[in-house]
Amino acid sequence: MPELPEVETIRRQIEDYLPIKIEQVYYSDVSDSLFRPAVKFFNPKGLTILSIERKGKQMAWKLGEDEFILTHLGMSGGWRIKREKIGEKHTHVQFEGRDRSGQKIFLGYVDPRRFGEMGFVNLKTKEEFFAKLGVELTSSDYNSEYFYQSCRRYPERAIKVHLLDQKTFAGIGNYMACEICALAGVRPTRKCGKVTKVECEKMIEATHQVINGQISHSGLSFSGGYKDTTGNDGGGLSNLVVFHQETCGMCKKTAVKKMVLGQRGTYYCPHCQK
Ligand SMILES: [Zn+2]
User: Which domain holds residue 157?
Assistant: First the structure.
């Protein structure tokens, strides 16, 4: 599933072509569940994508002061960019237009498993969507004090389960949660109430390390899921220390342990994480 680094990779890759004037819109085999909030009219033809905001895994493409396309990639969604019409299977929505240099461009939304969502909304609705999400991890609001206070609210919760709470931290999924705990030296099962202030600082540093490391590799592709806008896999696998690893990438000697926590496969190093 795409997590924050994968969505940010896509955001940056599209941003390189902005502004994009949309001249034509194509739909193919669209299910009703794609559009949320539900819209009868979704036709941004003639409008221009000016900029792209992101909070967590949610993107908002700005088309005007009061016009936005919300796009959430769900489990397997992604955007492709091509100079000719995109023929890839499961391309449900496609915009044809002109990029900043006046060249023809196609932006296609591809989603084999159809858990992604898209909406054509006004500013108020966009703000409401963003407000429901937890803190953006690349903002200064995500700091050790915020982290510590959030842990105090759920003292009995396992720290890794806490990291996956989208209302507290926007954009962390399973691989990020495992990697953040590893790099911070904290066992995924540790109760939030037992996480120290110093460890909260380490969690913040570890988060930035995971995000920057993955973005520098164009994101993490795992078992045929995420692809970037060129249709290529991200190279982030080489940047993992515990997730789906046999030997810990930090101490380079201890076998990584796997367990199920909150119904999700969880990986940790019994030597490096306390
Ligand atoms: Zn280790």
Answer: 135-268
